[in-house]
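Narrative of accomplishments. A recurring question from our advisory board has been how the design workflow behaves on a single, concrete structure rather than in aggregate. To address it, we present the structure tokens for one chain from the evaluation set, followed by the sequence designed for it. No filtering or post-editing was applied between the two.
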């Protein structure tokens, strides 16, 4: 399969993501940030930001859950 020009890198983002077993949200951040200049510009940056916001929300929820678990014991 021919690689699209917006993925014209020495190491393809998908190869890097898979080789490093990077989870879904982080993988999408890598994908969108690596291609934004060559494909969708601001739209790709906003998509990356969306996944970063999801990670932050999940992180904060995990901290809240850990705190609640620690105070109820």
């Amino acid at each position: 399969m021919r690689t699209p020009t917006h993925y014209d890198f020495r190491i393809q983002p998908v190869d890097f993501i898979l080789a490093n077993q990077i989870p879904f949200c982080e993988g999408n951040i890598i994908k969108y940030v690596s291609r934004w200049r060559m494909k969708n510009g601001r739209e790709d940056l906003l998509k990356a930001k969306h996944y970063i916001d999801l990670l932050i929300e999940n992180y904060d929820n995990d901290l809240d859950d850990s705190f609640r678990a620690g105070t109820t014991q």
